[in-house]
Amino acid sequence: MESKNKWSNLISWFLTRPKIAGLIVSLVLCSVVIFVAFQRYQILKENKNNEMDTILSGVHQNIGQSLKNCYATTLTLALTINDEGKPQNFDEIAKQLLASNNSINSVQLVPNGIISYVYPMQGNEAAMGLNILKSKKLRKEALQSIANKKMYFAGPFQLKQGGEGIVGRFPVYHKDKFWGFSAVIIRLETLLKTSGIHAIDKSKYYFQLSKINPNTSKEEFFLPMKGNFSQKNYVSEYIPDGNWKIYLISKNPNDVYTHLMAPTILGFILALCFGVFIVLIFKKPAELQLLVNEQATKLINSEIKFKTIFDQASVGIARIDSYSGYFMEVNKKHSDLLGYSLEEIKNKNFQSVTHPDDLDDDLANLGKLRRGEIREYSMEKRYITKLGKVIWINLTVSPMWEINKQATTHIAIVEDISAIKESEELLKKSEVRFKSLFDDSPLALWEEDYSAVKNYLFELNLINEEPEIVTAFLESHPEIIQKCFSLIKVLNVNNQCLIQYAPKTKLQHLSSTDIILGKDIPHYFIKHLGAICQGNNHLNIDANIKNPKGEIRDIHLIYSVVKGYEDTLERVIIATEDITERKSAEKTALKTQQKIESLINTVDGIVWECDAETLNFSFISEKVKDILGYTPEQWTSSPSFWKDHIHPDDTSWVQNYCRTKVDANSNHDFEYRMIAKNGSSVWLRDIVNIVVETGTATSMRGIMIDITKTKEAEKELNNSFNLVTEQNQRLLNFSYIVSHNLRSHTSNIASIVNLIEISETDEERNEMVQLLKTVSDSLNETMVHLNEVINIRTNIGLVSESINLQQYIDTAQNVLTEQIILNDVSITTIIPKNITVNYNPAYLESILYNIISNSIRYRHPQRKPEISIQWFLENDMNVLQISDNGVGIDLVKNADKIFGMYKTFSNNPDSKGIGLFITKNQIEAMGGTITVESEPNMGTTFKIYIQ
Amino acid sequence: MRKKNIWVIDDDPIYQILIDKIINRSGKFSSFSSFKNGKDAIDSLANSLKKKDSLPDLILLDINMPVMNGWEFMDAFSLLKPEISNQINIYIVSSSIAAEDKNKSKTYSEILGYLSKPVSINDLLLIASND
């Protein structure tokens, strides 16, 4: 069992590896071929050697025979020697011997080694007399035969008498004493002939004869060499009589291989072929196995695929026993549809889940199927689910048995069509509803067919033509319009239509389209046809229509192509609404509005209305043109027009104010500026009313009144008021100054007078009188000053001239020359040359003198006084600036005093407190001002502003 | 009644001469010092405090003066006040009849009265007796 297993394992191992199996078989066969070839080679080789041995031994025998004959010959010849040692009848006997032995060419007797007798003499004369024992070449062999006392064949060698031959020498002893030799000479030619070598197949073999040279001990070959000798391609035999070796040499040593070559190669080829054959044979099952595997995989895949399709299908699939109706296999969808689990459903049959009303049909169909009357059927039926719900399905049944075979099972494909059924129901309902909508609509509705109109327009090449061209064409062809109108087919009308246009029956209405013809039908109908030409499927137009009473009614006509009929216009809905009353109401409203508008436009102010949230203006009265220069359209077209045109200085607060007021729902009245079209600022008083609906401001209405003139007057009034106030103030100041300054003197006088009255001595009285004089002088001085100031203030004798500033600065410097030199003052003047000012010369001189002399007077004790005079523009005012590096004034303390009368800040005896007071008054009298900047110990800068 | 020490602070030299006479006539004052502005007076007051010299009992103070006017003197005086142990009565004596000056004088507790020039002997006697 086990071995069998192993065996089959081995086979299958090979079967799966056809190449290795083929190789192994091929190798085994090759070795068999090699073995057989080798055996065959051995046999051939042996046969050949045997053959050659046989041939050679034949030759050997022949040669031996010849030599034996020679032996007899020599013996015979020796017998001719008589007792004296002389041959008797040599020639006679020799002749007989030669005749009897034709292999011998000649015979000799060589007494003492000298060739003395030769037969036949002819041809052998040269040998005569040769002493072979003395011949170097022959001696050794001759001595050998003597030593052996045996016949010995010497040679082959060149015979003295010519030619090649062998000499057999038989030592002859006479009376136990060496007599000489009896010799036979055999020509080699003859010897070979007798040996029979000529009979040898010369194509296969050749013959060779060799002898060890007695002199050189080297093997000499006597026959021509015809091939390689060195290999084992020969057989040899030794002939002791002549010390010869004979060879039979194979001419073709390789013929054995030649014989073997073809079969061996054939063997190999066969082995190879067999190997290949095995490979092919073995391969076949492997390929088949592969094919089987592939098919199996395909099968599995397709099974998985179909299993997946079955399980995942969006339709329910079931395999059902065609007799019992039991579910044998269902997919998930199917069980989901019914609500039963896969296990539960296997215990059910389709009869139990089918709605009883549908069961009979289903069973009838199944019966037909079973009987082979039909091959499949489809039907819509109802299932009852586990939960008792009725669902609509579309059932398709296909048998699983072949035609004319016994019914077995069938496949039921079940599709849930509940939704479709439901929507069908809905559709039906909605159709009913829409039908009633159509019929009961308060609008008069026509369902009409415009296809003939469109075709007619198409024939006229008006479809997709430019609207202007269509209009022009139709206007000039009223008969075409009439034709078009008659081509409209009324399909249906609703109840309202009947009521309004009141033909007695629908039918009558359908045939009398002409009731629509009002007085200006062409006008709107041209538009309508134009819209059809342009492919517009919806159209809203106002038109007139004549009702059965013959009244012309205004209607609003809506033309709408029913979806799906856009190309043909076979179905079109025309809705008409009687708007006669509305139109007339509109007209009245329009008239009222126009009246109000014209009223509003007469109001001298911009009447406006805007949205409370966005501040978008919806109305602006015409007056805006007069007041601001803009048109109402300009204003209302831009949402931010108002904001954008408020004066930049007012825009921020105005918008904030407005927002606050609107948020508080409070009406307001305020004034601001707007920029007019010509760029000027216009003062507006804006009276705003907020329209509140349900607690929130929805819109605002108001009026903007031009108050520019009032504003200007107000401004002027303000200015003059300020001026008067200022002048009053100055006057008050002045009177205060006057009273103060005068009072100090009068009080002194009063005191002095009092003292005089109560004086007890004349001396005392005189002293008082003196004092009175002093007081009187200073009072006088004060009066002069006051007079001067009054003069300045009342502009008495004030004449302004155009005067050169530089020149006056020079004059002031000249007046102060002494002090300038004394105090080493440097004055820098940075003013454009030839600057002229319109000023009173005396004032200018006085101003310059006062300020420069002040600068010198209040110089810093530790510094070289430096005064800088500059001229520049500041805010459109000319400024003459005089700065020094003097002691400066603490302006924090003295700001209010610096320009006051009799205000001094130091104990400087020259300080009178009148110079800057006068200066200030002079500058102000010329319409300018003076300011001062100063810091103690740093210096003072006066700026004189000149108009 | 002890005779009092009086200081007159005024920049009007003629007034100074006249007040000197009037003070002498009144016979109520032991000594009389005159200062031509507030600065001189405050310096002298500080100096006297330092040297523990006798301080004035009465000061007649003008308002409009260079360098340091009457109001400025009052501000400086307030700073020195904590160091002063005895009573110093201050009267404004001014040629100004402006109500604002008069009102301003009332804001200073140290100022006992506001006299308009001219000052008579009777005025001085009244002041001197007003303790």
UniProtKB/TrEMBL annotation, chain A:
GO biological process, one term: signal transduction
Keywords attached to this entry: Kinase, Membrane, Phosphoprotein, Transferase, Transmembrane, Transmembrane helix
Chain ranges of the CHASE domain: 111-200
Signal peptide: none
Coiled coil segments of this chain: none
The keyword Transmembrane is annotated on this UniProt entry: yes
Cellular compartments annotated: Membrane
Superkingdom, natural source: Bacteria
InterPro entries (alphabetical): CHASE_dom (IPR006189), CHASE_sf (IPR042240), HATPase_C_sf (IPR036890), HATPase_dom (IPR003594), His_kinase_dom (IPR005467), PAC (IPR001610), PAS (IPR000014), PAS-assoc_C (IPR000700)
Chief place where the protein resides: membrane
PAS domain: residues covered: 302-373, 592-665
Membrane-spanning intervals of the chain: 20-38, 260-282
Protein name: histidine kinase
Species, as recorded: Flavobacterium frigoris (strain PS1)
From TrEMBL, chain B:
Domain Response regulatory: 5-131
Keyword entries, A-Z: Phosphoprotein
The organism's place on the tree of life at top rank: Bacteria
InterPro entries membership: CheY-like_superfamily (IPR011006), Sig_transdc_resp-reg_receiver (IPR001789), TCS_response_regulator (IPR052893)
Pfam families: Response_reg
A single BP term in Gene Ontology: phosphorelay signal transduction system
Post-translational modification 4-aspartylphosphate, affected residues: 62
SUPFAM superfamilies: CheY-like
PANTHER family for this protein: RESPONSE REGULATOR RCP1, RESPONSE REGULATOR RCP1-RELATED
Name used for this protein in its record: Response regulator
